Amino acid sequence: MLSATVLTVALASPAVAGNGSADGDFGRPTLTGFASLPAETFVPNSEESGALIGAGPFNGIAAPFADQPVQGFSGIVNRHDGTFDVLSDNGYGSKANSADFLLRVHRIKPDVKTGKVRVLGGFNLSDPYRKVPFPLTRADRVLTGADFDVESIVRVADGTYWMGDEFGPFLLHFDAKGRLLEAPIALDGVQAPENPYLDGAQPTIGGSKGFEGLVRSVDGRRLYPLLEGTVTGDTPGDLRFSEFDLRKRAYTGKRFVYRLESTAHAIGDAIAVDRHRFLVIERDGGQGDAAKFKRLYLADTRDRDHDGVMDKTLVADLLDIANPKGIGGFGETFRFPFTTIEDVVLLDDRTLAVLNDNNFPFSSGRTPGKADNNEFITIRLTDRLHADRRAFR
């Protein structure tokens, strides 16, 4: 069992002077770029997908699809050349309906001048070295959405990728071509209903509530996977944020706790700003006009006021973004009103890129009755983050 050092994020903690505006929270961000990838974008010459979700139509789109959709951006890696690696999740929302969805990392190039996103290629995830000890869906060991629900991704100094899975939850380590390098690494005491080792025991976390966020420390020595759901026995709305030592390939036993503003909320992504501060997306489950809460917070592991909890500073309300230039053809207030917003990346000390997971073909947050595109936006903050320069690597 983990012997954990636990800190908690307060529901409405006072902001820390120096981390944002003089009065605490950052002000209203400004939209600086917009690009969109059409919902009906598919991997050329791939395989049929979507046969298990029903014929539909869903938001005007019928299944199955002749090829694999480019959908569900659940994690992002900045390649620092104008391109990004983005991670599709498990496919269609559950283990039962995603066996024909191939897990994949896509290389994209957004162009905020043209408003378009190009897909440059990518690679499927696979287990050719037979590192997974439990049965997989496919004999060729190409991984599917019935095997893992990958929701978060980081790239480390050797060019390999670590990903967070929700079904175990597991940490998964892949090479630069998407081949699994190690057996899935479990988190002690945490098992989702989809966990293959459950063996009749009671799960300790909700379905697909595993590692929604995965952070690489600024020194590159540790990972911090963030659960999406509360572990049985913990305070409702508290999410474990554990520390994993990359050199020892083991959890250190140290963890923090991110407390949601509401038990009805979920997190979407997390990234490091420095040794102590992390940007976290927190959201409700609404879309379109029903979306009420889509925010970015700075969560700080230092207890500056000595009250035993992490400080939490509002950085951006994604439903209230200034758009004085009318970028993207939108009005003076830009909203990012999607059910799932699951990607944030630092571009510079005042600029962030944020992407949605479009849950193809089910979500319709931008236009009712129309399947959402994958959108890529850039926003400029009112204040500098004062980020560690290593956070931009």
UniProtKB/TrEMBL annotation:
Keywords for the protein's UniProt record, in alphabetical order: Signal, Transferase
Domain Phytase-like, first and last residues per copy: 68-360
A GO molecular function held by the record: transferase activity
Pfam families: Phytase-like
InterPro entries the record matches: Phytase-like_dom (IPR027372)
Signal sequence annotation: 1-17
Protein name per the record: Glycosyl transferase family 1
Organism: Streptomyces spinoverrucosus
Upper classification of the organism: Bacteria, Bacillati, Actinomycetota, Actinomycetes, Kitasatosporales
